[in-house]
Write a structure and sequence with these properties.
Layout (H helix, E strand, L loop, with lengths): L12 E6 L2 E11 L3 E3 L2 E3 L7 E6 L5 E4 L5 E2 L4
């Protein structure tokens, strides 16, 4: 990961964009190898990890690249 890529830890609150708008959830783990979530395969590596997140709204999990996630602060 480059120095300007966000780094998150398990338990961090994050938000991301979806086709339905912005949603938020929690980091549940770091993915460092190919893995599936939501019918999609993420091609993560140790050098380019991705994050497994659980949606607060639906409870479903997904895997996102670090650049797709932003820290979330509830209003």
């Amino acid at each position: 990961m480059s120095n300007d890529t966000p780094k998150f830890q398990k338990g961090d609150a994050v938000e991301w964009n979806t086709s339905q708008g912005t949603t938020h959830g929690t980091i549940v783990g770091t993915v460092t190898a190919s893995a599936q979530a939501g019918g999609h395969t993420a091609h993560a590596t140790k050098d380019e990890p991705q994050y497994r997140v659980r949606s607060d709204k639906t409870g479903s999990t997904a895997i996102h690249k670090p650049g797709a996630l932003r820290p979330y602060k509830a209003d």
